[in-house]
Amino acid sequence: MKTQTPTDEDIVTMSKRLSNYYRRRYPTAEPDDLTQDIAVALLQAKQRWKPNRGAKFSTFAWTRVLRAVHTHVARRHGATRYALEQHRLPPMPLAWEPEAVQHYLDAVAGRPR
Length: 113
Hints:
Elements: H1 8-25, H2 31-48, H3 57-77, H4 81-85, H5 98-109
């Protein structure tokens, strides 16, 4: 199975979808700043990701995205990332295909398919 490096358009789409998800989870997060922090995390992951090592991009980028979200929320509320990481987040889909992500977001929001 060959995994492709996401394009910049893919990064924008992913960051908007992830931002929408995390705004529901952290309603006090600033939407534009959160989207930007997630996009920066995804771009950094894109630069460092090496597909020949066998990990999917989504798996590689996931920790960077979580750290970016936790840092954003912690900065905004004066909390530490450690306190935020104590709350378990539901697992994201293993692939970044738009259909899989949308299905996951619908399930989290309680919308029937």
